[in-house]
Structure formats: C-alpha cells, structure tokens
Design goal:
- The protein has 10 helices and 13 strands.
- Strands 5-4-6-7-8-13 form a 6-stranded mixed β-sheet, covered by helices on one side. Strands 1-2-3 form a 3-stranded antiparallel β-sheet, with no helix packed on it.
- It has 385 residues and is α/β, with parallel strands linked by helices.
- The chain has 2 domains: 28 residues, no CATH class; 287 residues, 3-Layer(aba) Sandwich (Rossmann fold), CATH 3.40.50.
- One of its GO terms (molecular function) is hydrolase activity, acting on ester bonds.
- Keywords: Glycoprotein, Hydrolase, Signal.
- Belongs to the 'GDSL' lipolytic enzyme family.
- This is GDSL esterase/lipase At5g14450-like.
Length: 385
C-alpha cells in the first residue's frame, strides 16, 4: 500500500510517496558534492589511529580485509551515508597519508566529547579533539584548502582539494555525545548530569551556528544511542535487582541519561531552525534505530544482542579486541568470532558492519528522522514531527 504525505518547503508543496519504506520525492535530490563529519568513534574513519596508536587486527577484517582506522570489523554508518550519496569514503583530517579531501573530510576521533574534559586519552580514552577543536580544524582546513586551490595553476594540483564554492553545498554531519553521557555516568549522579547537560547541548549548538556563519546550510544531526545496552556494560549484571535492567537487558538508568540528552538536543535543534531560517537541519533518532535492532536481534538474523564478537570479557577480566593479556597465568588473545555478520556488537562498545548497515538502511530513508525525508533530500526543509 502506498502512503502519500504532503510536505511544505517554503512556498513549494511536494509529495512524498512511501513505497515499501523507500522515500521518493517530487523534488530533485540534493547532489551533495562533499560531506564534513564531526564525531567520536561511532564515525571515526582513521583520525584517532593517525593521532595515536593505529588500530590493529582484527579490525577491518570483514570489508577492508585489514585495519582501516575504524572501531569495527568493517564499515561504519558514515561509510554507508557516503555510499548512499555516491561519494568516496571520507579521509580522516588527521591522516595525511594517501588522503583525498576532494569530497569532504572527517574530523571525528574515537573518544571525542562535545565539551572538553580534563582527562587523558591514556587514562580514560577521552580524545583531546573535542568538538570545539574539530571545528577549529575545519576552519583551518577550509581556509588553507581554499587558498591552495586558488593558487594552483594545474588541475592535477587541485584533484585532492575541495572546491571552495562547494562548502556551502556540502552536507555537515554530527555523530557525537555518547562520550559526554559516558563521562556523566562515570563521574556524576543523574542529578549532577542534568545540571551540566544544557551546557553540553549549548556547545553543540554553538558549533552548528559557527558552521552556518561559515556558509554551511545542511545539517544531519544524530542523537546518542542506547548506551545502557552496550554489552560491555550489561556484562556486569548477571543477577540484577528488579528494576535495574529493562526487558532486553539494558541498564535503565544509563539509557535514561541518554534519553534526556536526546530530548534536550531535539529541543535545541527545533530552536536552531527558527534561528537559522536559511538552513535545513535534520534530527536523526539513532537511539530509536539502534534500540529497535537490539530489541529484535534474533528476528533480524543476529545472535543475542549482548554477545560480543571480538574480545574477552569474563567476570571482571577484560582483554580488548586484538590484544593479549594473562588471566590466571594463562595468556589470552582476544580475537574475533567466526562470523561477525551474526553479531550486533563488535567489541562490546562498537557495532559490527552488519549492524551498522542495518541501522543505516533504517535511518537514511527518513524512517527515524525529523523531518521524515531521506538523506538524499536533506537540503529540503520539510514538515517536522
């Protein structure tokens, strides 16, 4: 059955036909020439590996067949985004080796937070490249590449550089916030976290406003996922007291913190639409998409969502994916499972390529976005829900 919905973009009315979950619009697709991404390990395509220790095997084994700077066995959601938009995979801004920035750049690094934290990457894993630093890096990138492009006399000297006039036509994506929630869980009570949360959201909104001042007009903004469903967290609750876990084994208190972050983020995105009337801002409910997969894991062909493909996690002993350690005098190598495509969790924190592909398929058609338009038409300002 076809469902017809009408959206209004300015003075232009257009139809959206939902046919078997695929969105088709009467308007031409946006044809984004580039993507600029800001985020954490959920969308890092090599930044933290270039800055510190490179990711080793078995990461990347499924698709790239070698480590590719991603916290997964293969591709991330951002990789499926660029594929849907028919663009090449994004080079990390921090990785100069073999990089091409013709169609965008990725400023995300694993462990990044929205708000700067006074913590060390070598102690807690928090990246020094918080969102404000990523924005500074973008500013420098935009200025320097534009200057180099304009100075270049040969086409060959320009082939890896973005065209200056295309920055305003690009898609700007955000996938960050999970580590801010994690820091709140680690260092604060729920009440304390609620006090600092508006400031965290303010920092994200300021980043969007700054990019808008620099000419950005189309934003695709992910909320944060169900952190209480991460298997490495669930591992500690074998016999929990009633009311600690939900029906899918997820820690209720941690998910409530993520939900509060998402509620405040959505309200701020709504406010930004009024403040930036020339911009198109899409709010993406990653939490709902990931939770739908987790709660229907076996129906979708996956093993139990709490199972971890790569790593050793028994009792309170942890050997992270690809590492070795001695447990009770026995050397343990934390290798990967036989078939990662059956697992949702790659290493207890990050998702497998198969899970990322499933999630991408369910957000890119507009099923979990406000407004409910596909990413190919994200530059159009539709009706919000």
């Amino acid at each position: 059955m076809e469902v017809v919905r009408v959206f209004v973009a300015g003075s232009i009315a257009f139809l959206v036909l939902s046919v078997l979950g695929e969105e088709l619009t009467g308007l031409s697709p946006c044809n984004f020439p580039a993507i600029y991404n800001f985020g954490d390990s959920n969308s890092d395509t090599g930044g933290i590996s270039a800055a510190f220790y490179p990711a080793g095997q078995p990461s990347g084994e499924t698709f790239f067949h070698e480590p590719a700077g991603r916290g997964s066995d293969g591709r991330l959601i951002i990789d499926f985004i660029v594929k849907r938009l028919r663009l090449p995979y994004l080079s990390a801004y921090l990785d100069s080796i073999g990089a091409s920035f013709r169609h965008g750049a990725n400023f995300a690094t694993g462990g990044s937070t929205i708000r700067q934290l006074n913590e060390s990457f070598f102690v807690t894993g928090v990246s020094p490249f918080s969102l404000d630093i990523q924005i500074v890096q973008f500013d420098q990138f935009k200025t320097r590449t534009s200057n180099l492009y304009n100075q270049a006399k040969k086409h060959s000297h320009r082939r890896n550089l973005p065209r200056p006039q295309e920055f305003s036509k690009a898609l700007y994506t955000f996938d960050i916030g999970q580590n801010d929630v994690a820091a709140g869980i680690r260092t604060m009570s729920n009440e304390q976290f609620r006090v600092v949360l508006p400031d965290i959201i303010d920092h994200l909104a300021s980043a969007i406003q700054h990019l808008h001042e620099q000419g950005a007009r189309t934003f695709w903004i992910h909320n944060t996922g169900p952190i209480g469903c991460l298997p490495v967290t669930q591992h500690y609750y074998h016999h929990p007291m009633p009311g600690i876990l939900d029906q899918h084994g997820c820690l209720i208190s941690q998910n409530e913190m993520a939900k509060e972050f998402n509620r405040q983020l959505k309200r701020r995105v709504t406010k930004l639409r009024a403040q930036l009337p020339g911009a198109a801002l899409t709010y993406v409910d990653i939490f709902a998409a990931k939770y739908k997969l987790i709660s229907n894991a076996k129906k979708q062909g996956f093993v139990d969502a709490r199972s971890i493909c790569c790593g050793y996690h028994e009792d309170y002993n942890h050997v992270w994916c690809g590492h070795k350690d001695k447990i009770n005098g026995t050397e343990i190598y934390a290798g990967s499972c036989e078939d990662p495509s059956l697992y949702i969790s790659w290493d207890g924190v990050h998702y497998t390529e198969a899970a990322n592909h499933w999630i991408a398929n369910h957000i890119l058609n507009g099923s979990f976005t406000d407004p409910p338009v596909p990413i190919t038409h994200a530059c159009q300002k539709g009706q919000h829900v």
